Amino acid sequence: MNRTVLPGSTFWNDWTKYPYSLTNWAMRPLAVQVLSLAYKSDGTWNETAFADKTFDDRLAEALAIPDPDKRRVLMAEIEAILQSSGIIIQPFWRKLYHHTAPQVKDMAMHPTFCLFLEKVWLDA
What we know:
This is Peptide/nickel transport system substrate-binding protein. This protein has helices at residues 8-11, 31-38, 53-63, 68-85, and strands at residues 104-105, 121-122.
């Protein structure tokens, strides 16, 4: 396999037509949101053209469960469906961290690394 890194202006013109590509789906606060966009049969950005009724049904169930601990068991089943289908190489869900000095107060971590500074203050 040869890897070709394309500039964004080239890649995005035909992004759904490549036989193999890697996508970083790190810009959603919950993994279940990524799966809905990227792998649901009628998902907005379903670049794999993956379509599986069992997956879609389980995903709909997971999207309706607000408690992450209760959703976790169903998410494991959903991810196993994707992994066994061969359309996804899922090495990990990356954790995001943000560090500040102790005197910086009310600085929150945003999943897209945006800085919202309207409530940030320094403790003297």
